[in-house]
Design goal:
Shape: globular
Strand content: 15-25%
Helix content: 25-40%
Oligomer: single chain
Structural class: alpha/beta
Number of strands: 15
């Protein structure tokens, strides 16, 4: 039986198993097996030749944004509007066959925007060019999920399921669980909170499935078995995501209002160029970028070229990035957007 068949069998068994106290250990083991097989499925084959054209894109600029979605939702048009890059657009499906990079220039920052080929259902199993799309998406700082507003929430639910199955966690914090494999001493299990979804026995069963018999585990939150499996697997990617509903000019105003009020959502129309400025501001917030300006002693601040940093960057980070040493404030001083810092050469 191949990996796909094993995954299918486990998914069927999970779906038909009633969730209760008596089945929690069985379900936990099934989920651990499922995560292990999915990880094997996504591992690149040793016999695979060169990567698909356009998918080996060098990361550049101050941040990377992955633009994903089903075919013909407007990704290529969006790329052309937001950047100086022309990505072929047409009214038929699967127009974009490779990864097309573009650059958004905003507030002095260069944001790399990647128009990825349309994801289809089953991409996680390698259908279409799903593996390449997913591999690039995992390297992004933010995901823009482009959706067709005329199709409600159907596309959003399907794409979330696809990305979830390959270890991409959208708008979710990392589980607050300390986990460290050891060379001996068995399983040391502790928690600082009351656990209602995971028990010491279930944790041991999951670890044994991964052939881990010595480890230190500390739960700092009431986490689920799935969250614990994420920590054990260790290759999960947690990233912010903006759900962008395109084609709002084709739906009633009531539906536009409903979509706009959903968490992490923005409504736009590429055809009529509606709400693109607001989307850009939201993207800036989700990327958590700030602009820092420099000032040399005795001179006016230099506003011609900003240093782009991540929010919560300290003076030490700015000093390192500019090859200067900060003065007058501590190294741990947190910089704010559009701060001016006076620096002196060593």
């Amino acid at each position: 039986m191949g990996i796909l068949e094993k995954i299918s069998e486990i998914e069927k068994e999970i779906s038909r198993t009633q969730k209760n106290k008596a089945t929690e250990y069985h379900l936990g083991l099934l989920k651990a097996k499922l995560a292990k097989y999915r990880a094997q499925l996504l591992e690149p084959s040793k016999s695979t030749g060169s990567k698909g054209e356009g998918f080996d894109v060098m990361k550049s600029g101050d941040a990377r944004v992955a633009l994903i979605g089903f075919p013909s939702v407007g990704k290529s048009t969006f790329l052309s509007l937001m950047t100086s890059t022309a990505s072929e657009a047409a009214s038929y499906e699967f127009t974009t066959l490779t990864c097309i990079p573009g650059v958004i220039e905003h507030k002095g920052a260069n944001i790399q925007l990647l128009d990825l080929p349309g994801i289809i259902e089953g991409a996680a199993q390698g259908k279409g060019r799903g593996r390449q799309v997913i591999a690039v998406a995992r390297t992004a700082d933010v995901v823009i999920m482009m959706l067709d507003a005329t199709k409600g929430d159907v596309q959003r639910n399907l794409l979330e399921k696809e990305l979830e199955s390959v270890g991409i966690r959208l708008n979710k914090p990392k589980p607050n669980i300390y986990f460290k494999p050891k060379k001996g001493g068995g399983i040391s299990f502790n928690s600082t909170v009351t656990l209602s979804q995971c028990s010491e026995k279930l944790v041991q069963l999951i670890l044994h499935e991964y052939k881990i018999f010595n480890a230190e585990v500390l739960f700092r939150e009431d986490a689920t078995p799935d969250q614990f499996i994420d920590v054990v697997v260790g290759n999960r990617v947690h990233m912010p995501c903006l759900y962008v509903y395109n084609k709002i000019d084709q739906i009633p105003l009531e539906e536009v209002d409903r979509l706009a009020r959903q968490p992490h959502s923005v409504v736009i129309s590429c055809e009529m160029k509606l709400n693109l400025d607001y989307l850009l501001e939201m993207l800036w917030e989700y990327l958590a970028l700030i602009c820092i300006y420099t000032k040399k002693r005795g001179e006016r601040p230099d506003f011609s070229g900003a240093i782009i940093m991540r929010r919560s960057a300290s003076v030490e980070h700015v000093g390192t990035s500019t090859k200067y040493s900060p003065q007058r404030v501590g190294l741990t001083h947190i910089m704010e957007h559009e701060d001016v810092i006076q620096i002196v050469k060593k």
